[in-house]
Write a structure and sequence with these properties.
77% helix; 768 residues; two-stranded antiparallel sheet; elongated; mainly alpha
Length: 768
């Protein structure tokens, strides 16, 4: 009985060992194959020229030594001279082949390569050495023929072997010549050579500048306050001709790019642009710690000592982008715009020898040419260029934030505004959406980086943003812009983003352990809350309607932020800010009413209802947080909503809208009664009676005699409030589905609370 379990255990152990062995066998084989493929073969390939040369000459020498055993030294003179002459003539024929290859190379260079790169492509110093060595070999063998029998030169084994070695060497040099010609015929290799020349020139210039600096810094009368970096920057000024050479290289590269574009070799043309970018980035690296800020010639304007060098290539880059737009080449213009961003990022790493650190003239120069290119995109109405422009600005703003280049934000906002206007005018909805997304991203970057001048910067940004949004709203109102769900969602994005960031700032201020960080985050919180509300105020005054779908976003944000502020009033870490918090929540509450303040007509839709819901939820939360005055204000505002709807409602009306609005004020009353706050109930009663009188006057005063409405009824408000009991019953045991005031109330009160409220207000007991 004990044998079988033991056998089973042994089999299981054996199978486990077998599987493990197989696994390690396969993984070992995979590692071996990968080592062979990606290390050994790559190493061999990198050394193939050296290895090939060694193998070739070892075989050649071995063959020569082997053939030397069969040579008869008593060769007659005539045959020996004929042999030497024939070999020399053969080598001379090889020279003719080399000339032919040289002519082919020159013809190809003249046809395909710009004039500036002709010497680079057609001329190779090594070719001259090869020709020289082959000529020497031919002359040496002719010498053997002419001096045969003289000076002790006969047809010996050594002379035969020497001739064979020279012939083998000629063949090898011919092969090398062919390989180099083939390499020069490849435009990619020509580009590599040209870029290497530029890089080498930059390295040489940097080295020479350092050598000059070593001399200048040892001047006897030099001020001791002058740093080595300042001396190096001065040294570069003596080497401007060297930079002129690099500029010529760049000009030739642009010519080559244009030639490739003309021949429809666009992928290769983009490769040329990449090389140009690398050269400029290498220049930035060379001047990283030795750049000067200079006055530009007018008040407070500055420039850099690199401006003269950078202006030609940047202008040509703009011209290339404009040509791509004319050709409607989306890939090309995208690449050009991305190059400007790369240059801005590289230029931002430069340290300037100035006391004013908030300056980056080289980056600003690159950014200025990017703006110029995008202005051309607006002129050409090029959708892809405008889209890419909107995409890349949020990639630049982190640099501006890091270096405190606050004066550059305005140019970004102005450029985004121009792109947005152009997008709206041309119905480029995708571009317009990306502009809004760019603004949302910049808002996040400013707040999360705790930008030092956030109040002013956020204010300016939101001023630009609200103008764009209102312009979009006006365009949709007249049909110039499609009022689609996607468009509406895009318009709402910055407000959702800022609302989310306000919550993050509140959490950070609450959770942080240091006083300084808490102060910073609180300042960010109040700044963001105030500027968002100011934006709502501006848009509500301009739009003059509560029925746009965008208002639904505003209502949700007002509700969420208002409730957040009320929650913070009860947090000990916000005790000192309670007065400011109470003031802010009051402003947010009254903001809901501004959307109907100048509206001539109001529709009962989700957008308008979100404002009522915002006031109701803030009022309910105010009761929970012992902010009774705010709760009273909420009752007043909801009552105003209901009374204005009696006058301004348009569309299909049935008499249910106003009581259902006023019901939200009663929600506050129900909870107040449960909490024993009689003062709020008395305040509510002041609004219920006038409302019901106005409601009855509108819907029941002009009815024909004998006509009686079954629905709605004169006590419709009371019936709507009583309906909350059924909602409580339906919700029993279920989780809330929506964050509405109805759902909130079903969690806070019970049926008895509703019945008590109805009796308190109307002195009626309704049997359910």
């Amino acid at each position: 009985m004990t044998f079988r379990p033991l056998k089973k255990e042994v089999n299981l152990k054996f199978n486990e060992i077998k599987k493990t062995s197989i696994f390690y066998f396969y993984i070992g084989r995979l590692r071996l194959l990968n080592y062979f493929r990606f290390r050994f073969l790559r190493y061999v390939n990198s050394k193939k020229t050296i290895i090939g040369t060694l193998v070739y000459f070892l075989i050649l020498i071995g063959t020569i030594l082997f053939l030397g055993k069969f040579i008869d030294p008593s060769f007659n003179k005539s045959d020996a001279i004929t042999f030497f002459t024939a070999v020399a003539a053969m080598i001379g024929g090889i020279l003719a082949i080399i000339f032919s290859l040289s002519i082919l190379l020159m013809g190809n260079a003249a046809e395909r390569i710009p004039v500036g790169f002709y010497e680079t492509a057609a001329k190779d110093r090594f070719h001259g050495l090869i020709f020289f060595f082959i000529s020497i070999c031919s002359l040496t063998i002719f010498t053997f023929a002419l001096l045969f029998g003289k000076l002790g030169l006969g047809f010996s084994v050594i002379s035969f072997q020497a001739v064979l070695f020279l012939v083998g060497g000629v063949f090898y040099l011919t092969f090398i010549f062919y390989q180099r010609v083939r390499s020069r015929l490849n435009p990619v290799n020509v580009l590599k050579i040209a870029s290497k020349q530029a890089f080498d020139q930059l390295e040489s210039t940097h080295k020479r500048a350092q050598e000059i600096a070593e001399v200048l810094i040892r001047q006897p009368k030099l001020d001791k306050t002058v740093t080595k970096e300042q001396i190096l920057a001065t040294s570069f000024q003596y080497l401007r001709p060297e930079f002129a050479y690099i500029n010529n290289r760049l000009n030739y590269l642009f010519d080559y790019h244009n030639k490739l574009v003309a021949s429809n070799e666009r992928s290769s043309a983009l490769g040329v642009l990449q090389i140009i970018t690398q050269i400029l980035q290498k220049y930035f690296q060379t001047r990283k710690d030795s750049s000067l800020v200079l006055p530009a010639g007018f008040i407070l304007a500055t420039t850099s000592d690199s401006r003269e060098f950078l202006t030609p290539p940047l202008e040509k880059l703009v011209a290339v982008g404009e040509n791509y737009m004319r050709d409607n080449d989306n890939e090309g213009i995208t690449r050009v715009i991305s190059i400007f961003v790369e240059l801005c990022k590289s230029a931002s790493q430069i340290n300037y020898l100035t006391k004013h650190k908030a300056e980056s003239p080289i980056m600003e120069q690159c950014m200025g040419y990017l703006n110029y290119l995008l202005q051309s995109a607006i002129k050409f109405n090029h959708q892809e260029a405008l889209f890419q422009g909107a995409v890349v600005y949020p990639q630049i703003t982190p640099i501006i934030i890091k270096q405190n280049l606050h004066h550059k934000f305005l140019s970004i906002y102005e450029m985004l505004d121009k792109i947005a206007v152009s997008a709206l005018a041309n119905r480029f909805n995708v571009v317009f959406g990306e502009v809004i997304n760019a603004y949302a991203t910049i808002i996040s970057q400013l707040i999360l980086s705790r930008y030092f001048n956030l109040k002013m910067e956020l204010k300016i940004l939101l001023e630009h943003l609200r103008d764009i949004i209102f312009y979009a709203y006006a365009s949709m109102s007249v049909g110039a812009l499609e009022s689609s769900f996607v468009t509406q969602t895009n318009l709402a994005l910055p407000f959702k983003t800022l609302s989310s960031l306000i919550f993050q700032a509140a959490k950070a201020a609450t959770d942080t352990k240091t006083q300084d960080e808490q102060k910073d985050w609180k300042q960010i919180f109040f700044t963001s809350v105030e500027e968002l509300r100011a934006t709502f105020r501006y848009l509500s005054e301009k739009m003059k309607t509560p029925n746009h779908i965008l208002v639904n976003t505003f209502g949700g944000a007002i509700s969420d932020i208002g409730c957040l502020i009320l929650d913070l009033t009860q947090n000990n870490k916000w005790k000192e800010d309670k007065t400011e918090l109470t003031k802010q929540v009051g402003w947010y509450l009254y903001q809901t009413e501004w959307f109907i303040h100048e509206a001539e007509k109001i529709k009962d839709n989700y957008a308008f209802d979100s404002l009522v819901e915002a006031a109701a939820k803030i009022g309910i939360r105010a009761l929970q947080r012992d902010q009774d005055e705010t709760a009273k204000d909420a009752i007043k505002i909801i009552s105003n909503f209901a009374n204005k709807m009696l006058v301004k409602e348009e569309g299909n009306v049935y008499g249910f809208t106003e009581p259902r609005i006023m019901e939200r004020a009663c929600f506050i009353g129900i909870l107040a009664l449960k909490l024993g706050k009689k003062e709020i109930i008395n305040e509510l009663k002041k609004y219920i009676k006038p409302f019901e009188e106005a409601y009855i006057k509108k819907w029941f005063s002009n009815l024909p005699k004998g006509v009686k409405l079954s629905s709605p009824t004169k006590d419709q408000l009371m019936m709507e409030v009583h309906g909350l009991i059924q909602e409580i019953r339906n919700r029993y045991g279920n989780l809330p589905v929506m964050d509405s005031s109805n759902e909130i109330m079903t969690q806070l009160v019970n049926e008895e609370d509703v019945d008590k409220f109805i009796f308190e207000v109307w002195r009626v007991k309704i049997r359910s």
